[in-house]
Sequence to fold (897 residues):
Amino acid sequence: MPRMNRERDRSFPPRRLPGGARSVAVAVALAAGLTAGASGGEPVPSPESHLGFRPGADYRLATWGDVASYFGKVDRASERVLVRTLGETTEGRPYLVAFVSSPETIRDLERYRSFQETLADPRKLPNAEAERKAVAGGKPVVAITCSIHSSETASTLMAMELVHGLASGVDPQTREILDGTILMLVPSANPDGVDKVARWYERSKGHPWEGAGMPELYHKYAGHDTNRDWFMLNLKETRLLSRLLYKEWFPTLLYDVHQMGSRGARIFVPPFYDPVNPNLDPRLSQGIFLIGAHMANDLAAAGKKGVLYGAQYDNWWNGGNRTTPQRHNIIAVLTEAASVKMATPVFLDKEDLKAGARGFPDHRRAVNFVDPWPGGWWRLRDIVDDELICARSLLTLAARYRESFQTNLLAMARDAVRVGTEAPPYGWVVPREQRDPGEAAALVRVLHDSGVEVRRSLEPFEVSGVRFPAGTWVFPAAQPYRAHLKDMMERQNYPTRLSANGKAEAPYDVTGWTLPLQMGVRVVEATEPLRVKTEKVDRVAAPAGEIDRDDVSGEPAFYSIEETANDDFIVLNALQAAGVNVSRVVAGDRERLEGAELSLGELVVPAGAKTRAVFDQWLPKVSTRVEAHGPAEERVATPDRPHGQPGPASPATVPHTGIRTDPIRPVRVAVYQPWVPSIDEGWTRLVLENFKFPYTTVHNAEVRSGAIRSFDVLLIPSVETKTLKDGYGEDETEPAYVGGLGPEGEAEVRRFVREGGRLVCLDASCDYAIETLNLPVRDVLKGLPTSVFYGPGSILRASVTGGHELARGVPDEVFVYFDGSRAFELTGQGQGRVVVSYARSDPLESGWLLGPAKLEGKAALVDIPFGRGSVVLFGFPPQHRGQTHGTYRLLFNALVD
Ligand SMILES: [Zn+2]
Fold:
């Protein structure tokens, strides 16, 4: 179970505060001049009394401390509200959810939770009578999640008003909501960002950049991609909420509250635009329609203008906090309100108002935009008002259509189980025998963490002509979350969509995400019904690393690591951090290598106390396979290195055996961080930290001053050339953060490489390197119109050239992510090597690729010598959103000696 509120015990069924403690809260509230609420005469403090301003007031934002303490006060004052702390955020703040319903329901939450659990998995209901009771007995659970995008500031303030209104209101609508629903209110899905944005906003006030110009991501690693993590669960925040949604509470409806740009519609409500993903149950789409219509109706009734629907936002992609819940039978929606500048109002003339999105060609009256807003002042309070109307509209609808929504929840789950038994695919098998067994376990784990049922075979069995042993992971398609499972396992086939002018119509987000391809894991689809005895897996354990001692009787002389698993880098990094001198087999004839049971490229690790300590610490947690070698075996020689850092004694004890190893020098890695926040930079840091790579963040100043020369590698994440060169302009942020690398930075980057450094560029930053260093490389896709070529977030097949150090331990064929990325041609004679190329025919594996011939056979990863150093150009993102584990090794190889 998640962590309970640390202030006091919050176990289910909840225990209410003893009377004494509550009267303290009452006294505090009364002293603060608060009016008495209506929940049994308890006074519920208003947000205004707590904050000192009304939520949505111009120029005012709340910190997370203000928000959390307010929810604590409401929890103490109201019998209608129970606040739980689910756990800690990335930076250690409490992640909160407030349950709101009638006092009787709040006192009996576990009973309602168990109704939800059985409706979400009707296999737990023995017969029609039990189903009827579960539908009739429960209440629709409605999750509302606020400010996952922290610069979209209104919804957290809205949440304070919403909880206050429901905790204290005596009006019929409030009664109806409390009696008919259970609200699960998440005041922010990224509490860290609430503080980051509020603090920056205060600092920016009164300056030309007021409400803009932040020099850091508003989530430590993900920035705006906090809402791109819902199937991969890289972030603490997504893991906490996923557990609540898919393993504990199984809500009926979900509303994720967003803001968009300032100049379009005032608010977008569902339904969404085409295309719709084929894995979505039709009842889900119709439920979305119903919710949007009800919201639009309530907005119109309140006199709100500028409401748009059926435009802009499609319903194809998986990975956001509306689209992933939809694959869990939750009718999930978002709204997008026009933004202000954090809390500073904006004034828009009629001429300032724009359109141009799909289904919204002009800012004029249309069937899906019936009442355009005429322009004028637009304030934070306007957004709070609109969102409050939408939230209450959803809750009212849920209360009124209570039985219909609960029946649909049950029916969607039941149908998912039925279809999984009646038609292929019947399931998926994940063999234990894998090139990288740790990644196979990671794939199984992320699906399991998203509520997908995982089973383990209890006997050997056969699928599609392949035989598997007992203990193999099996995902039966016949399960309530079949849509999510299938959507993650299958290849996406995004429909070709062109606008009237022949240009590609941009999708909302990426178009392909097939998990086995992204992670480089072998999965077998069952096209025939699965016939094997299985048991449910409650905990997915990664295969622990081990030391193979088969050929060693006594104490080993040294160890070797074959290097195919991503986890091997964790072990290598830990060994190097401990000062162990790891080396690599670089030469030796076949006979001698076989005699020593070694192969080229393998890591050689000397035995000793430090090695022992690292293995003891890490092997239980990673899947690295280590082989022990006895003293009697053929020895391995390490010649002195002509340059680089001298290392301690190597495992070589007898020189001149014909097997040569080179010590692996610890590499000093600098990761460039622009002041214009880069999400790709954040993900890069997360991936490096997960695999224990030591690195140092450098900014413009360290590059411009030449301080980067104390590093071996400069890694520039995917950042546009203009941002790299110029950064923020004057008056766009504080003076300390203005500017980019500039001419001095360019000169230093050039000098860094010329003097022996390795520059590693990811995707967009390749443009900068090609231009700045005048490299003999051409991006053949540059400037092509989208009518000719387009690849918006797809998975492509590519082949790897063996023998290059960047290809160490990488299979001959890899699946690379391509998101408006690059394809290279080398233009200089013999200058540079191609390490990875896009497949020569039909490279598309998942998603959408228009004009594939443009990149077929072209280079995706090249290594270009420059002076005494080199430039590594990744034309694709090898670490995309922390999802593409299958291409991590290519990046990691670029960061080791
Ligand atoms: Zn948003």
Observations:
- The two ends are 44 Å apart (CA to CA).
